[in-house]
Amino acid sequence: MYYDPIKKSLGEVFNRTPLLRRIFYFLLDLLLLRTWHVHRELRQWSAGRLNEPLNILDAGSGYGQYTYWMSGLSKKWQILAVDVKDEQIADSNQFFRQIGRTNVQFAVQDLVLYQEPNSFDLALSVDVMEHILEDVEVFRNIHASLKDGGMLLISTPSDQGGSDVHADGETSFIEEHVRDGYNIHEIQQKLRTAGFERIEARYGYGEPGQISWRLSMKYPILMLGASKWFFLLLPFYYLVTFPFCLLLNWIDSTSRHDSGTGLIVKAWK
After folding, report:
1. Best exposed site among 13, 33, 122, 265 by fewest CB in 10 Å?
2. Spatial separation of the C-alpha atoms in residues 80 and 90, rounded to whole Å
3. Rounded mean pLDDT of the chain?
4. Which residues form the Methyltransferase domain (predicted)?
5. What is the largest CA-CA distance in the chain?
6. Which string of DSSP letters, residue by residue, matches the chain?
7. How would you list the strands of the sheet with 78-83, edge to edge?
8. What confidence tens digit (pLDDT) does each residue in 150-164 have?
9. Are 233 and 259 in contact (CB under 8 A)?
């Protein structure tokens, strides 16, 4: 099945009004476990920085939910959000103008080519690198674009079952991925090759997170892939599963895991 068409259909539903889009962001923040991990890291990074005029790069902004969350933390932060999808960038620019977030700009850019030397205090890459074959080139561009002391925060699938691949011969649940997941040592080595020296990496999506992901994402997406009529049943499905997913997300994001299907990586210039 293809994940992008279903994401596009959901986006079209929630893009109809600014209120619906805010609700969409809120639901994504609750349901997506990676958001719990990313928000936790961003809170730690932002401590003591909320009143500083910082520049942030959202490298592969997608729906724009992380830019929305960060832009709400401080009006002094200037955020550039880039993605390769023209329509998504246009929708995001329109939405952020409607809600008056003037500290945000969306632009169409290819991360393999984009570089803005010594410009950003933070770069964020959430579920992006598994879609890009030329990953070291992207890491080099981001390294060059960061100021000295700037940090890159990455969330990406691991090779411990990321992309829902658990054995040789299996194919990814999300077929748009160019790699099923990174080995934790592999991604650190690639970041060193790109110029980063201080790197920290840990697993997310341990056993609690994997259960939550199947309940909150995999099964609903499979149902929607079978028939769009399942969209009518989703509220009732989530009414039952939602409390369990919230608890599992909290457990996963506050625990350390020896293994997991996701990686959270921080690298400093």
Report:
1. 13
2. 14
3. 90
4. 54-165
5. 51
6. --HHHHHHHHHHHHTSSHHHHHHHHHHHHHH-HHHHHHHHHHHHHHTTTTTS--EEEEES-TTSHHHHHHHTT-TT-EEEEEES-HHHHHHHHHHHHHTT-TTEEEEE--TTT---TT-EEEEEEES-GGG-S-HHHHHHHHHHHEEEEEEEEEEEEBTTTGGG--STT---SSTT-SSS-B-HHHHHHHHHHTT--EEEEEEE--HHHHHHHIIIIIHHHHHHHH-GGGGGTHHHHHHHHHHHHHHHHHHHHTS--SS-SEEEEEEE-
7. 104-108, 78-83, 55-59, 120-126, 146-157, 262-268, 198-204
8. 999 999 999 998 655
9. no
Residues 6+ apart with CB under 8 A from 187: 129, 154, 156, 201, 263, 265
Two tokens at 29? 């923040």
Q: Which of 82, 85, 95 is nearest to 14 (CA)?
A: 95
CA distance 48 to 205: 29
pLDDT at 206 over 80: yes
How much is the pLDDT for 28?
A: 87
- What does the pLDDT look like over 60-103, one tens digit per residue? 999 999 999 999 999 999 999 999 999 889 999 999 999 999 99
| Measured distance CA(201)–CA(263) in Å, rounded | 7
CB 266 within 8 A of CB 41: yes
How far apart are the C-alpha atoms of 240 and 237, rounded to whole Å? 6
What span, in angstroms and rounded, lies between the C-alpha atoms of 230 and 1? 16
β-strand 146-157 against 262-268: which pairing, if any? antiparallel
Q: Distance between CA atoms of 38 and 155, rounded to whole angstroms?
A: 7
Comparing 262 with 172, the larger pLDDT belongs to 262
In one-letter notation, the amino acid at residue 121 is D
The pair of structure tokens assigned to 27 is 């639901």
